[in-house]
Design brief:
The chain has helices at residues 50-60, 123-129, 154-166, 169-174, 198-211, 230-238, 252-261, 287-290, and strands spanning 5-14, 17-26, 29-35, 38-45, 70-75, 89-94, 109-112, 116-117, 178-184, 189-195, 220-224, 243-246, 264-270, 273-278. It is an alpha/beta fold. The longest helix is centred in the C-terminal third of the chain and has 14 residues, at 198-211.
Length: 294
């Protein structure tokens, strides 16, 4: 396995004093995802949780929806000319009855640690691929109508960024990682993943949930450490997550997708302040505040 962090020597300048010291950096390496032996995508990621990352990526692409659709994930041996395994190539084998998407050179995808899935062009692609509607009362067992709709207080939402930050173990050593955390609607931390890329951190969360048979994640909140891009909103929708919260701004396309899909989208979640861009019906507002302008 590749290392999550690496040590490098740096020249440190502080108050005019110059010293040489070791510094801890977050590792970034390419990972190729193959589907039934055929190359599908390359992503720049922090090594670790690679199988969950591959599974989550395939959920967001509409290929996987249930654990039984996934036959196996393995590292490809002999990745270098001398036969050494770099652990940077994984092959996902689908169950026999799962339709394999048409993989062509034009469809092959390159994802970076900063921009997410490049080339995802339209809201229609997400709408037609989503396996479940965003339904507050539907669980992974297919039951419906048995739970009250999701309703979150502003106080609970306001507590999530600090709880996310407190759980970022690798960030404490490097300062260079994004994080995505999954919370219950009561505020319980269910899972957290870190990666150099925001989209990778979310894919690792969703992929682990798929492997554990927990999709759709219908009564959860996805909290991310950066901005809420279209790619992250798409991944939430594809996993059946009803609420996406971010410490920074959403994009206009993310808001469009949230409005069309029924996703609750919260941005600029800092301290007791936040903006609700879509799905405000899941936020428990005081009667006076609900109709107050400004």
């Amino acid at each position: 396995m590749g290392r999550v962090t690496e040590r490098r020597r740096v020249v440190r300048i502080r108050d005019g004093a110059v010293t040489t010291r070791p510094d801890t950096l977050v590792a970034e390496e390419p990972m190729e995802i193959r589907l039934n032996g055929k190359p599908l995508a390359i992503t720049m990621r922090t090594p670790g949780d690679d199988f969950a990352l591959a599974a989550g990526f395939l959920v967001s692409e509409g290929v996987l929806a249930r654990a039984d659709e996934l036959r196996s994930i393995v590292y490809c041996a002999g990745a270098t000319e001398d036969g050494r395994n770099t652990y940077n190539v994984v092959d996902v084998q689908l169950a026999p009855d799962v339709r394999v998407p048409d993989i062509t050179l034009e469809r092959n995808v390159y994802t970076t640690s900063s921009c997410g899935l490049c080339g995802k062009a339209s809201l229609d692609a997400v709408r037609t691929q989503a396996h479940w509607p965003i339904d507050d009362a539907t669980g992974a067992d297919g039951s419906d109508g048995s739970a009250a709709p999701v309703l979150l207080t502003p106080e609970l939402l306001a507590s999530l960024p600090d709880r996310l930050r407190a759980s970022q173990q690798v960030f404490d050593r490097t300062g260079g990682l994004h994080a995505a955390a999954l919370f219950s609607t009561e505020g319980e931390l269910l899972d957290i993943r870190e990666d150099v890329g925001r989209h990778n951190a979310v894919d690792k969360l969703v992929g682990r949930a798929l492997q554990d048979g927990r999709l759709p994640l219908s009564r959860t909140v996805l909290m991310v450490s950066g901005r809420a891009s279209f790619e992250l909103a798409q991944k939430a929708v594809m996993a059946g997550i009803p609420v996406l919260a971010a410490v920074s701004a959403p994009s206009s396309l993310a808001v469009d997708l949230a409005e069309e899909s029924g996703l609750t989208l919260v941005g600029f979640l800092r301290g007791t302040s936040m903006n609700v861009y879509a799905g405000v019906h899941r936020v428990a507002l005081a009667p006076a505040a609900a109709g107050r302008p400004g």
